[in-house]
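Pyrimidine-nucleoside phosphorylase
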Amino acid sequence: MKKRDGEELTTEEINYFIEGYTEEKIPDYQVSALMMAIYFKKMNKRETADLTKAMVNSGETVDLSEIKGIKVDKHSTGGVGDTTTLILGPIVAAAGVPVAKMSGRGLGHTGGTIDKLESFKGFSVDMTIKKFIENVNNIKIAIGGQTANLAPADKKLYSLRDVTATVDNISLIAGSIMSKKIASGADAIVLDVKTGSGAFMKEEASAFELAKEMVDIGNNVGRNTIAVITDMDQPLGYAVGNALEVKEAIDTLKGEGPKDLTELCLTLGSHMLVLGGRAKNPEEAREILEDIIKFGKGIEKLKELVSAQGGDPSFVDDTALFEGADIVKSVTAKGEGFIKGIKADDIGKAALVLGAGRETKESKIDLSVGIVLHKKIGDFVKSGEAIATIHANDGEKERLATEMVLNAYQITSEKVKPRTLIKGIVTKEGIKKFYKNNDRD
């Protein structure tokens, strides 16, 4: 009733409701009503920070104090073809900054980081926390599965919000993301907040608002946090699908990857190096990371990671060893012109149809299927030219995905400017927006 009437909840009230709901002392119907009241009346910064802390304290927290150095974590709000962790992790670790990453499995158009890494034969994320810490101290990187009891209140609340139309609230989204990041034990956090058709935050203004909220939460609880706002109006890179994305990550670590994926990894990685104390500023950090790619140190670090977690590192040298799909077919353009838009979410749905993702937690992922794009926004295409290639193991699914990919592409006769990838950065000092033409502040 208090929140319904637009009043502020106290720290004690927030702790009481999170604790009571986690322990099943407060029923779903009361919490549903509270979520709807929060959705309409919103929460202020102090309430949001208290909600996040309460969710962190609802379960276990990971103690990474035995890892030497400043542990920097990266979190992406999700997109299509977002394989940055597989590139960022090795290059940041090769620069000497410890990467202790807790990742999840994907629910949606492709698998999560863990699913993608399992494309390497034998790779496993199942390890004790002692082994996890040992690996980071030895080779500067480990990627583990999230423990079942990390921020359990968030898991319960998200399931409820999902079925009560209360997901889309900045405080609840920010609290959900940051509670898991804080519970995971990192000292500093770099957030990649996506905006556009393939992102959770479709509008740029909402993405900046969410980024500001999360940066404030992180810094309020003593975690040095920054956010980079990035474009997701088209898929990142060219590959969408687990093994296909891993191959693209390997190409990128060899210095042969797509420009946008490389640029994003260098930008996020630069901020990770600054927060990790390895560089004084992003410019110095970028030079370090460019050298790591140039001299093959990133690719060697990926091999170390794969090997340390039971995988076969020879897949890195010979990507033909990855499981391939039975059907490989081109999708050709119906007309001529410039690519005006690519509906990223529709490309993601096409990958899901092929079996690259999970519709439910029980769904089994096909690691070999997916889509490789050949044209991005601003590119010119001739009629009959390939705009994408479908990798499928089922003829009917391949036909359906082809139709979806064709419908996702918008072609115009007028020349189109390429998209600006990095929209801005949010730090505790404030918001800085970037525009390609430098015609706006």
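thats it. The radius of gyration is 22 Å. Residues 100 and 142 are 5 Å apart (CA to CA). bye
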